[in-house]
């Protein structure tokens, strides 16, 4: 089952949130506007689908781009945004990216198509990257539709131009493999460069997986205020953490107990995933939008008990001076539900 178009930004969010804490979706409508490591991105996101050209090539898939989207992307690029044209395969685990230069070179009054191959998805599952090479006539050069795992989206976005400068699938497969290793070894907070030097090609790639430093006092203050107890489920069990209400990644998010909540690992994760959120008035908010995304992507087993918590009160410290501020709860809700 394919996801509703208006929920497609969740593919982007779920790919980028683990990549860097310095990430925010600004506008979830297509093209999705976001910041990643302080750079502005505008990504057109849609599904790849059969091109309807089965007679000639039943492996062919494509995305279609309206003239309006292309012009909007061109304008955003002129303003300094980095732009990308992304097509996800239906489960969201693999995407194809086209060179923006190629898209901008296409001439069409209404809708244009850019193409890839269904079989690229299979290749990504075995070798992490796969290209479909074609002649970009208006550019007068060969161009690549590059298929990558969703986990490489951040790395791709940070290096769009360099990715499309590479001229061999082998170089891209190697590059993404090296990045994945670094990703697995170093985790959040790692940054660096990966240089590709292959068959006369030299390109430098960067990755920046920002992790903001934590103030250890914040954790102490919050856990003390709540008696080391999850404010949603009343459990202790040494699985309780301190969470920021206005996300830690938002500039100016206070390291004050009134911007904190004590949450068990499970409820912390559901908060970060914006499924169940402590909201203003000390009531829980169940995010039906996120639930719909999980349902449509077959990830919603067990959601019933979480849905039942909607509007239920959550616990706050007895000391009024240490309770969460309502304006923080509202702002945190807006930021987290918006993305
Ligand atoms: Zn809990």
From TrEMBL:
Protein name: HNH endonuclease
InterPro entries linked: HNH_nuc, MTaX1
Organism this protein belongs to: Pseudooceanicola nanhaiensis
CDD domains: HNHc
Domain HNH nuclease per the UniProt entry, residue ranges: 230-276
Annotated Methylase-associated X1 domain residues: 41-157
Pfam families: HNH_2, MTaX1
